[in-house]
Amino acid sequence: MAKRASSSAPHRRKARAKPKQGIVRKRAAPAKKAAAARKAPAARKGVGKAAVRKVAARGSGRSTAAAPSPAVRKAAPIPARAPARRTAAGATPARKAAAAGTPARPGRKTPARKTPARKTPIRAAKPAPQRFTVSHLREEDFQPNGLRPYARYRDLGIAEATGGLARAHVIRMIPPVTDEVRQRHAHTVDLQLVYVLKGWMKNEFAGHGVQMMEAGSCWLQPPGIAHTVLDYSDDLEVLEIIVPADFDTSPVD
Hints:
Elements: H1 2-17, H2 19-60, H3 93-100, E1 151-155, H4 158-161, E2 167-173, E3 185-188, E4 191-198, E5 200-205, E6 209-214, E7 218-220, E8 227-232, E9 237-243, E10 248-251
């Protein structure tokens, strides 16, 4: 009998442990009640406010209907913008005016900018073709048909061979040196180069003073420089090259 009693003791302990689960469930019930209690006052407050409103309405003779909410003003509809005028190029005048740096005026058409026509560069006329030429010394070629009546000229044929591009001649000065020779003057040329072949020559140039030229001397006279022939030897002979072949000479005071 003692053995049976000892064997049944563990079963009793398990039976006692079962009610603990029920106890946990019962403890969880108050938490739900507390949450419901929290919601209840809020509902009661709403009911109380409604009751107060009804009592106030009865005393004043007004209905318990809710007061109409103030009318909401509707915004005026925004008028649709008229489509912007477009020019032939597809851009609006305002955009064109902004691109040009001037503000567009309302109600006025912005004149289209005219693109200036490109000027074709003027090309200098091609000089006439040059041909080969040669000139040999002959005394009869010295002629009094040049610029100065007190000199004899031997034309070297360069003007004709270059189509008037340049002129070259040998000049022999005839003595004596007169006041006509000493007349101050200037030449309208592009280039004037002189080389002394024989004798000597004394000249004066504006800004450069008096210059003594002898056989073998060479100088360049800038275009339009005023100069004076002061003196020369009886056998003076010079080579002169001028561009262009035809030029003007004017006296200078």
